[in-house]
Design a protein that fits this description.
With 217 residues, this protein is α/β, with parallel strands linked by helices. It is built from 5 helices and 12 strands. The strands form 2 sheets. Strands 1-2-12-7-3-5 form a 6-stranded mixed beta sheet, covered by helices on one side. A hairpin with a 5-residue loop joins β8 and β9. The longest helix has 17 residues.
Length: 217
């Protein structure tokens, strides 16, 4: 997959212990259909993106717009049911979250091998899934929230959406003790050449895939 097909975030690229990526819209691919059919059409491209990380166990979430966060590892199912957030210390794992207007939140412990990837749209933000993920990383891995490097993906924002949930996610993360937080500020609804937008395309569109893994030697 060419570099142009994946977006990288400077705050995460600067960390030696992790790898990440965020797939962009595939030019010319017809995804004007339901979610499952669109994902099927995108699978070859998403598979290529996952292959960039080498042979790994791929973990994804059902994404029900809730606030549950699961620890995943070697014995976990490929898709965590009833879950919107994933955290791990598995060096052979690859976390994946699909978004099209919702925000993918990347969480990296800069002091120990622990990462998280969270799906947060309007409902998940109302339930403070971002704060729940920080709490889970602290409880499960001993993460100090002050050691986290957090990145927000492109997502829908005003004036294309009535709620600025990206701003609320930032507030929740700071309240949870996060000190290092970056946000692209990019609006998925404002750039349909690069992104898929559920709202602007009335539910019939594709998904970007956020990917996060611990670096291997």
């Amino acid at each position: 997959m060419s570099q142009a097909s994946l977006q990288f975030f400077p705050a995460l690229s600067a960390l030696p212990g992790i790898r990440h990526g965020f797939t962009l819209r595939v030019p010319g691919l017809d995804v004007r259909t339901d979610r499952e059919s669109a994902l099927a059409r995108l699978e070859d491209y998403h598979s290529e993106a996952r292959a960039e990380f080498g042979p790994r166990r791929f973990y994804s979430a059902e994404q029900i717009h809730g606030a549950r966060v699961a620890v995943v590892g070697r014995d976990s199912a490929p898709e965590a049911q009833g879950i919107d957030g994933l955290i791990t210390q598995d060096p052979g794992g690859l976390l994946g979250i699909y978004v099209a207007d919702c925000c993918a939140i990347f969480l990296v412990d800069a002091r120990r091998p622990a990462i998280g990837l969270v799906h947060s749209g309007r409902k998940g933000t109302e339930l403070n899934i971002a704060g729940a993920a920080v709490c889970q990383m602290s409880e499960q891995f001993g993460t100090d929230p002050a050691d986290l490097v957090v990145q927000l993906s492109p997502c829908i924002r005003p004036p294309y959406y009535e709620v600025d949930f990206a701003a609320e996610i930032q507030r929740q993360l700071y309240a949870a003790g996060v000190k290092r937080l970056s946000d692209t500020g990019e609006n998925t609804a404002a750039d349909l050449e690069r992104f898929y937008s559920y709202r602007m395309e009335k539910g019939c569109t594709g998904r970007m895939l956020a990917l996060l893994a611990l670096a291997t030697e």
